[in-house]
Amino acid sequence: MKNTKESIYNFINSEEYKPMNIRDLAKVLEINNHDIIILEEVLSLLEKEGKIVRAHNGKYMTIACAGLVLGKFQGHEKGFGFVLREEADVFISAKCTNGALNKDLVLCQVTRERSDSKSSEGEIVRIIERGKEKIVGTYFQNQNFGFVVPDDKKMGTDIYIARSKTNGAVSGHKVVVKITEWLDGRKSPDGEILEIIGHKDDPGVDIMSIIKDYDVSVEFPESVYKQIENIQAEVTQEEIKGRIDLRDVKMVTIDGEDAKDLDDAVSIEKLANGHYQLGVHIADVTNYVKEGTPLDKEALKRATSIYLVDRVIPMLPHKLSNGICSLNAGVDRLALSCIMEIDNLGKVVKHETAETVIKVDRRMTYTNVYKILDLQEEVMKEYADFVDMFKMMRELAGILTEKRHTRGALDFDTEEAKIKLDENGKVTEIVKYERNIATKIIEECMLVCNETIAEDAFWQEMPFVYRSHQEPDEERINTFLEFIIGLGYIVKSKQNIYSKELQKIQEEIKGKPEEKVISRLLLRSMKQARYTATNDGHFGLAAKYYCHFTSPIRRYPDLQIHRIIKENLNKGLSEKRLENLRGRTSEVSEISSIQERVSEQMERETEDLKKCEYMKDKVGEVFTGNISGLTKWGIYVELPNTVEGLIRLADLTDDYYIFDEKKYLIIGERTKKIFRLSDELNVLVARVSVEDREIDFTLSDGE
User: Fold this and answer.
1) What confidence category does residue 512 fall into, taking pLDDT thresholds of 50, 70 and 90?
2) Where are the beta strands (DSSP E) in 36-158?
3) 233-263 pLDDT, tens digit each
4) Which candidate, 440, 472, 473, 467, places its Cα nearest to that of 544?
5) Alpha carbons 432 and 53: distance in angstroms, whole number
6) Looking at CB atoms within 10 Å, which of 144, 251, 275, 609 has the fewest?
7) Three-state SS for 473?
8) Largest Cα–Cα separation, the chain
């Protein structure tokens, strides 16, 4: 059916094709009357996918031939929206949405093309696929009926709930509602309440509402719990057989204080020839997660652990992630080790990958390793046996950093927030995560290991899951370059830009007031890294080969490539298995890339929520921050704790302010007062909306 569908679509999409009805198509394609039912089914599938349409006269054609556009509908709370497409988006007025809701996949008819920068206008003619059938919102009860106000304001409509469909909900409950009858453009859709999350003011309900909105499972299926019942809490002698015994090798884990899933340990020593022998020892998760089992299927479905403000939604059950798979100190653990010999220029001259059994000597934190290297006596005394080891790691990390820098790797030192909560989920403090030499050491060890593993897989021509980062889009990078040229920076060429040129810009801005903002704009100009079954290189790291090997407890791509490496080490890969793995690695890459985006969105949304909650009782207070963004509607200001708010241009009443997009500044028409990126401002917290995740600032009287 798949091949038939592709061949029929290719025919309809060909230049010589003229619109035909089903009888004419059957004749041309030499399909007999007996098989015409298959043709009908294929054409119906292509219609449902939005690839072709059937005109009123019964003739089939592509959507382009019919003058239609396929795209995702992005709604607005006021009822209108846009159909997103690669070219200019299509504006859809409220009366032309025809029942489409935010995130629906739709076909729209462009009614008015615009040649200027404004959007074209159109009308939605068909909804191909609903973006969401289950929606999270707040329930309100009227006398005879109820309604749910979606948390997603872009839905642009309430959901009507009949009395018999409330499932016991009362006003103020956060609920999951299923739409049973979609709106027809004239009234709200009908729905029924499937689940009550809790009252909107109860602790934890805010985060759980976001989890439910993304349809992410917190609990594992019963079949998974049943499967892991018999997994032992300790490594058995049977499991150790045939492995290289590294239990006498001195090694440590280095993680944050709160980490419980410890999946990487490191060892280091100097060889007689002056080279370093670096061992990166990764939890052998595949020993417990067998391919095709309920546990494996659930792990792939999740594809990643999700780290939210108040909880972790793990990829694997805690019995594995915090137990037998976690490289806890003082106990035997199974590992897949990559042991590398690295010369004094940072080149890996030799390496071995092997199944091992290890015993971690100490569980270290970034804080304590930093204190040791900062020569703080009390901590140095406590870890006296490891001081030389950490000094050697710092030495090697410096060499590896220099090697990456020489080839043009970019360093995005992004600022992350650490949000501290009390037992009721209320924010007590927001601070910036501090990166130090200890985090740098682990980062460099993992980077060199990931590159080594990826290069080895490439030259062995194994099916694999690579971590790819493509070159930036020419238009976006040119916009960035024009911006920094406007700030007075010199760029030799805007054609065929290499990471080395962008690295020079990073060096030039170091220590300057605008460093943070320019770094953020450069990062936004980059394409997102993703997982691929082909080796496409990593632009940001200036690496020809790269993969994720070091975190199989919390990332499925790492687990998948462990499985491939182990099979290759033990019995080799047959032609049949190679063919199977090629399809498998493509599937894993696609699912993992999608789930990574979902995870990032959830993490960002929960952070924004808690930042707004934190600022809610600070309305009227004055803070000092720096301009982090400029738009035609306002000035974004970021406070030292990473909280960001907006000064709306409409609230600047002393003048009429204009956004100069080319010079990237906002200027007063009469006063010529200028607002530039990174300028320091004193701002007053004017309004905070936790529901909309918005913080509004105004200039304080001093400004």
Assistant:
1) confident
2) 52-54, 60-62, 68-75, 81-84, 90-92, 105-112, 120-129, 134-141, 145-150
3) 999 999 999 999 999 999 999 999 988 899 9
4) 467
5) 53
6) 144
7) coil
8) 89
Query: What type of residue sits at position 241?
Result: K
Residue whose token pair is 């530039």 = 676
Asked if 574 and 473 touch (Cβ cutoff 8 Å), the reply is no
Tell me how far apart the alpha carbons of residues 2 and 24 are, in angstroms, rounded to a whole number: 22
Q: pLDDT-derived band of residue 186, with 50, 70 and 90 as boundaries? A: low
Structure tokens belonging to residue 85: 């497409």
Helices and strands (H, E) in the chain, number of each type: 17, 33
pLDDT attached to residue 695: 97
* Number of Cβ atoms within 10 Å of the Cβ of 343: 15
Q: Would you say 648 and 633 are in contact if contact means Cβ atoms under 8 Å apart? A: yes
Helix/strand/coil (H/E/C) assignment for every residue in 253-270? EEECCCCCCCCEEEEEEE
pTM of the model: 0.87
Q: How far apart are CA 647 and CA 48, in angstroms?
A: 45
For residue 6, give every residue at least 6 positions away whose Cβ sits within 8 Å of its Cβ, in sequence order, or none: none
SS3 of 578, please?
Answer: helix
User: Which of the two residues, 498 and 179, has the higher pLDDT score?
Assistant: 179
Tell which residue, 319, 313, 315, has the closest CA to residue 227. 319
**Residue 353 falls in which region: left (phi positive, over 0), alpha (psi -120 to 50) or beta:** beta
Percent of the chain with pLDDT over 70: 97
Query: Tokens 């809701």 belong to which residue?
Result: 101
| For residues 321-337, average pLDDT | 96
Report the run of H or E that residue 342 belongs to, with start and end: strand 332-342
Q: Are 253 and 264 in contact (CB under 8 A)?
A: yes
- C-alpha 58/C-alpha 335 separation (Å) is 63
Specify whether the CB–CB gap between 499 and 405 falls below 8 A: no
For every residue of 124-137, DSSP letters joined together read EEEEEE-S-SEEEE
Kind and range of the H or E run holding 173:
strand 173-181
Rounded average pLDDT over 397-415: 90
Residue 687, classified by CB atoms within 10 Å of its CB into exposed (0-12), middle (13-18) or buried (19+), is middle
How many whole angstroms separate alpha carbon 408 and alpha carbon 541?
7
Q: pLDDT tens digits, residue range 549-588? A: 999 999 999 999 999 999 999 988 999 999 999 999 999 9
Q: Please give the backbone phi and psi of residue 570, each rounded to the nearest 5 degrees, phi first.
A: -85, -55
